[in-house]
Structures are given as C-alpha cells and as structure tokens.
Write a structure and sequence with these properties.
This protein is of the alpha+beta class. The strands form two sheets. It has a three-stranded antiparallel β-sheet with strand order 4-1-5. It is globular.
Length: about 60
C-alpha cells in the first residue's frame, strides 16, 4: 500500500508546475509521484525553509475515512 501524506504547512511546489498546496491537501497532487528524497525534504526540517510541510497519514486514520 502506498503511503499517504497530508500537507501541514502551505507551500508552492517548484517541481510540479508551481502547484500550491494548502493545509489539509494530500501530497503529491493526483497524477504526480514524489521521490523519496522529496518526501524526506518536505517531511523534515532539512529544507531551505527549515519547516515541516507534510506528515504521513497513519494507516488507522485512513481506514476510518
């Protein structure tokens, strides 16, 4: 099963034609794939902004929706 990520901080994606992700959106946008490196960059503070932008959605949360 593919991991699902939820946006926790608004950001503009430079790699997907400038798509703007709002808090609560699912990352990446439908039809796009994110690399492990990009997921690591966005889910940690190891990016130029020093902020966490996405969090993995726990399996039990996905099952309840």
């Amino acid at each position: 099963m593919t991991k699902e990520y939820k946006v926790v901080q608004r950001f503009k994606e430079t790699k997907h034609e400038g798509h703007v992700y709002e808090v609560g959106d699912i990352y990446p946008v439908e039809g796009k794939k994110a690399t492990k490196a990009r997921l690591d960059e966005l889910s940690t503070t190891k990016n130029k902004c020093g902020k966490i932008f996405i969090e993995e959605v726990p399996e039990e949360t996905k099952d309840k929706e």
